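Task card 7
Instruction: Convert sequence to structure tokens.
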Amino acid sequence: MAFAVYDAKQTLDAYLRHFQLSHAKFRDKGGPNRERAANFHLDDIEVFFFSINSAQKGRYLATSGREGLHHIAFEVDDIWAAVEDLKARGAKLKPCDDCGQVEPHGYSDGWCVFLDEATVPGLRVELMQTYTREEREAREREQANEGRASQQGSGACRKGAKP
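Output:
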């Protein structure tokens, strides 16, 4: 579950203080997007807070005027097989708010794709496949070679199809 908040660090601190959570993480990704994120786990569910000053999350806060649930993500082992299965059952995909890509594409932590709101009404739904170690290392090399890490921040979408 991903929640858009005005200050991820402050929100995490409140959860830590009130609920005595362990294994919580905070990261400040920096870059022009100035994304700050925090997460913790409740059994098998990851709770993720993000604050960002641009891109879709910032637009969400600006247009909704409130903090709250932004989307849920389902982690899958094979995003391309999951997408084909969903399409076979009538699901439709929507363009990524950040880059406009409709099919699975790379993001900061893995491959992602979004379902059209008509497919699952009432909530934004993302499918996510975490990068393998090799994919993560290749992404880091790509960013270093292109200088993207300093230009766009580490959460920028990347073009690309199935590896």
